[in-house]
Specification:
Elements (H helix, E strand, L loop, with lengths): L26 H7 L12 E8 L7 H14 L4 E5 L7 H4 L16 E3 L2 E5 L14 H13 L6 E7 L6 H9 L4 E6 L3 H16 L4 E12 L5 E2 L6 H8 L4 E7 L1 H8 L4 H4 L4 H17 L1
Parallel strand pairs: 1-5, 1-6, 2-4, 2-5, 6-7, 7-9
Antiparallel strand pairs: 3-4, 7-8
Helix pairs in contact: 2-10, 4-5
């Protein structure tokens, strides 16, 4: 039986099958391994896209988005409102819209209410029907709302984002030209844990954060005292930590919830209300920044 001596330092006469050349990946395999490059496209028919986000649910994003859209209208802007929360759309209820959008077979027409052009998955399905969809279907719906809706001559489109840092946020951040994001949070630490993740996500994806808003910051009782129900100063501290602008506080007021439930948000129902004036100040600041 022949014996072979194997050298650890060089080839032997029986190692002719070995080679010093490293196997090379095919061009097709290389292209698959390369990070995907996204091209960011503006939403047709709009000048500027502003996201209202948090990464935390239950902090009042939809209330903020609807009232900011109405405030921008009141300061002379043409505004659209896109409800990007596929699993929990709020705009149909908060704007009292019960009709379905018209279509020409190619694109959907937004539904106009209070002079705001609106679109939501809630217009296309019964409000009590759960959207049991996986990620690709959510992404497809978002692309439809941004690419196949006849938005007309808008200065701003306000996007009511869902909670979390998932498919919707990634689709907008990677494929849509986002001109800014406003982060809304309540002041308690459990909310700010998620908010900090959201801030890092937008920073990583190159979306400019316009600032942070402390929503439901305090309650003024009948005795005229301020009660800090959810804690104090957490949002401002977070803004300072991440070197973002702190835009201000919005107190808790029962009238805000009431008007939202009635389908006529407070800025529209009572433009002289103290809460409405806060939103109008936000709107003036945004308008002066972009227009």
């Amino acid at each position: 039986m022949p014996k072979y001596i194997v050298s650890l330092f060089k080839k032997t006469s029986n190692d002719t099958f070995m080679t010093d050349k490293k196997p090379e990946l095919s061009a097709a395999m290389k292209s698959k391994l390369e990070p995907k490059k996204f091209s960011k496209n503006p939403i047709l028919g709009t000048k500027f896209t502003i996201a209202i986000s948090s990464a935390k649910g239950g902090v009042g994003k939809s209330t903020f988005a609807t009232n900011l859209a109405l405030a921008l209208k009141r300061v002379g802007c043409k505004v659209g409102l896109l409800d990007a929360d596929i699993y929990g759309p709020s705009i149909p209820k908060m704007f009292d819209i019960n009709e379905k959008p018209k279509s020409d077979g190619q694109k959907l027409d937004p539904i106009t209410k209070y002079e705001i052009q609106c679109m939501s998955i809630g217009f296309l399905a019964d409000q009590q029907t759960p959207m049991i969809w996986r990620g690709p279907m959510v992404t497809s719906a978002i692309k439809t709302f941004t690419q196949k809706v006849n938005w007309k001559d808008l200065d701003f489109i306000i996007v009511d984002m869902p909670p979390g840092t998932g498919d919707t946020q990634l689709t907008f951040s990677q494929e849509i030209k986002m001109d800014g994001a406003i982060i809304v949070s309540t002041p308690q630490e459990v909310a700010l844990l998620d908010v900090k993740r959201g801030i890092k996500m937008f920073d990583k994806l190159g979306v400019k954060i316009l600032g942070l808003v402390d929503n439901m910051s305090f309650f003024i009782g009948d005795d005229k005292k301020k009660y800090k129900i959810f804690g104090q100063g957490g949002v401002k501290k977070t803004a300072e930590e991440f070197q973002k602008e702190f835009l201000g506080e919005i107190p808790i007021n029962p009238e805000v919830g009431k008007t939202g439930d009635e389908g006529k948000p407070i800025v529209e129902a009572s433009p002289e209300h103290e809460i409405s004036k806060i939103y109008l100040n936000f709107a003036e600041k945004i308008k002066s920044t972009y227009l």
